Amino acid sequence: MFNYQAITEFIEDEGIYEISFCDFPEIQGVTYCKEDVEIEAQEVLLATFAEYIAARKKIPLPSVQQDGTFTIYLPITCCLKIALSNAIIASEITRFDLARRLNINAQQIERLVDIHYASKIDILEQALYLLGYEATVGIRKKPLM
After folding, report:
1. Any idea what the Cα angle at residue 111 is, between residues 40 and 79, rounded to 5°?
2. Of 55, 61, 139, 145, whose CB count within 10 A is highest?
C-alpha cells in the first residue's frame, strides 16, 4: 500500500549508516548499527508523516522500487491513517463534518489520523468509505532475499 523506498550508505569516517528516502529527499535517518537500518527508516518516515498530517499536507504515494533500494513496510493502521488524511484533503470536507457523519466528536477524528495513536481498523475503514474510498487488504508471500 504505502511501501516507500530508501537507500542506505555506510559512512566509514563516522561509523554510521545514513538513510535517505527516494520520495522524500529532504529527510534523512542515521543509525550506528546495520541491523537497525530498517527500524530507524520506518521511525523517521512515520515521524515525517505525522508532521505532514499535522500540517494537513498530502502524503505522496510511493514511487516504483529502484535497484539498490530497500522497502520500508508500514503497519496497516498507519497506511489507513495516511489514506484517510489524504482522502480528507482531497474531499475538502472538514474534519468536524466527518466526525459528525461518523457520530464521533472532533477530537476522535484527530486521533484517527494520528500515526502514533492506536485506532481500530473498522472506524478507519468506515471513515474512508464515507469519503468514497474502499479499503482492501492483500496478503502475499514475502520474496526470499
Report:
1. 50
2. 61
